[in-house]
Amino acid sequence: MRYIRRLRLAALGLVVLAAGCHTDMWVQPKAKSQALSGFSSWEGQSASRTPVSGTVARGQVRLDDAYFTGFENGKMIDRFPIKVTKEVLERGQERFNIYCSHCHGRIGDGKGMIAQRGLVLARPPASYHTDRLREMPVGHFYDVITNGYGVMYRQAPNVDPADRWAIVAWLRVLQTSQNGRIQDVPNDQLSQLETPPTGEGN
After folding, report:
1. Which of 62, 131, 141, 144 could form a disulfide with 68 if both were Cys (CB 3.0 to 4.6 A apart)?
2. Superfamily of segment(s) 65-179
3. What are 131-166's pLDDT values in tens digits?
4. Are 162 and 83 in contact (CB under 8 A)?
5. How many angstroms separate the Cα of 73 from the Cα of each of 27, 66, 77, 149, 174?
6. C-alpha dihedral over 163, 153, 179, 173, to 10 degrees?
7. Closest listed residue to residue 159, CA positions, set 95, 97, 107, 69
8. Is 124 left (phi over 0), alpha (psi -120 to 50) or beta?
């Protein structure tokens, strides 16, 4: 008896579920991409409409100008809008080697493999070790990565904002490494440097 009762309840449940399903729910009126609109005001026009001016996609609000553009109040920023840590620098080195070194070189001297193997331009890839670029605010480098410069394509589609700032931080490391002096090293870290050769026996 119990088995039969359960079977009847299951059958009743299936009947209720089947009654609740209409083909109307499966085939709903909707506008498909690139289809002609059936809406009276847009008759004969595409159903894909241009978003209203100022529309922001969910999750795409970008209120921090300094972080997302490298500019603040119309001027390039000269401070990092992120905390620069060892992890950020390591990420910046990795991203730089992937996206930048083929033209700018691993040390940022403008002698990457593309430049060495016949890239002919009126202006060769930049070396980051010129006085002009050493004095440039960090916002300049972020803007160039984002929007491109000269023959360099914009990298915004490939490199997200956090990685762009990591690359800029690594550029500052490269600039310091190639133009630094022993006096720039903090006293408590001097002992970690290798002792330079004395020249004896050479």
Report:
1. 62
2. Cytochrome c-like domain (1.10.760.10)
3. 999 999 999 999 999 999 988 889 999 999 999 999
4. no
5. 51, 9, 9, 22, 29
6. 0
7. 95
8. beta
Quick one: tokens of 23?
């083909």
Q: What is the pTM of this model?
A: 0.68
d(CA 126, CA 174): 13
> Which segments of the chain does DSSP mark as H helices, in order?
2-20, 23-26, 65-69, 86-99, 101-104, 113-116, 131-134, 138-147, 161-179
Q: Can you give the length of the chain in residues?
A: 202
Domain extent listing, the chain = 65-179
Burial class, 182, CB count within 10 angstroms (exposed 0-12 / middle 13-18 / buried 19+):
exposed
Record the tokens describing residue 13, joined without a space. 């449940």
